[in-house]
Automatic annotation (TrEMBL):
Region (Disordered): 303-446
Lineage of source species: Bacteria, Pseudomonadati, Pseudomonadota, Alphaproteobacteria, Rhodobacterales
InterPro entries, per the entry: Curli_assmbl/transp-comp_CsgG
Protein name as catalogued: HfaB protein
Biased segments, Low complexity type: 321-350, 358-398, 410-424
Organism: Phaeovulum veldkampii DSM 11550
CC annotations in GO: outer membrane-bounded periplasmic space
Amino acid sequence: MGGKRFMRLTRLRLKPAARITGKCIALLAALSACTGIAPHDKNAKLVQGPPIADVQTPFDQALTCLNGKISPRLRFAVGIIPDLTGREQYNDGGAGKFVSQGAGEVVQSALFKAGVSLVNRRDQMVSTNEASWGIRTMRQQVPADFYVSGSINSLDFIPGGATYAVIGGIGPRYRQNRILIALDLSVTNATTGQIVANIPLQKQIFADEWGITGARFAGNTLVDADAGVQQREPLNFALRQVLYLATFELLTQLMPVRQYAECRSLIDDGAGEVTGPGTTGEFIRKYEAAKARAEERRKQALEAVAAAEAREAEAQDSETAEAAPAKPQPAAEPASEAQPAAGTTAAAPAADPPATPVPVVAEPATPARAVKAAARAEQDAVTVPAAPADADPAPEAVPRLEKAATTTRPAPSDASPEAADTATPEPPDPKRGLPVLPPAAAGREA
């Protein structure tokens, strides 16, 4: 009797659980149909995501701005840029590297955007095979003048922070963490092996997560809910941006400041900046300071010329007024003219008074002489100190990255200030210092 009663009670208790289980199974079946789970004997429907797009970075405009500013006679190549971080990740699907192994191809794309003459040294399999087959000789290969090499050598995980607050079973949460990635790239003269440009760069990869969680009873039923959002910068896309900026920096270190200043202004400081010593950031700061000093001296020279002209005009006016002769007064006629007596000789007329001599005024100094002196003083004052001798590569070893021939600066003349404006500044050498700017040329550069 007691056993039968226990079995009836058990059936009564299991009926609500069975109903709930059946509802859950029906719900899972409906969700599986919505999520696209296909039967085992049919192909699953492919999902079409966002459209394909070309890769764009905040540094593309600055790189394309260099197109045409580098001589096409100089040929560049890309050497080995390996991943030396030693970091690997393991998961259920296998193992892999954290960082992309194709950094060399990324630098090659950046050089191509800059419009330089580029030769392929990344894959020599085709050329080697054709040479071994006898259909081509390696002498037909075009030699490279410069090549880019380096490594990705740092990948550090920076500990982050988190916070949450729960009141009455409901509350928000937030946490963040960062990854630090760094690399070093160099440009080497392929003829001599001398390193002519170098740049180390780093970037922090940011990731954060926020959400809200809650657990409350609705009658006798516990309702637990959790929602959140997690976001992180793409690691390899961030690495591409670092490589693009490094390529731009390497190219501009070998160019005169005035030739790439406009292109560098296209880089937003929020995307990346290079301001350390020995970089283009330092070169541009010195260049702008030299231009400001030259412009100030030019203004002072023009003010001195204007003051000299004013004094000269005032002196000429005063001397002209003093040198003008007094206007003679007409003589009064006698009341009656006496006739000379017979046999007498008429008296000789009185001699005219001597004319007042006009003083000879010496020609004052011309304003052109003042301009000449100011221009010479200014050219001596705007010269920027040169870099140490050991940092200057040999001229025959490192060709100038200039499209035009080296310009010359005309000697100062005694012409007007407008003629002095035509002076062309000497192109600067980043290893030797900044150019000597004439007064008017500094104004146009600004």
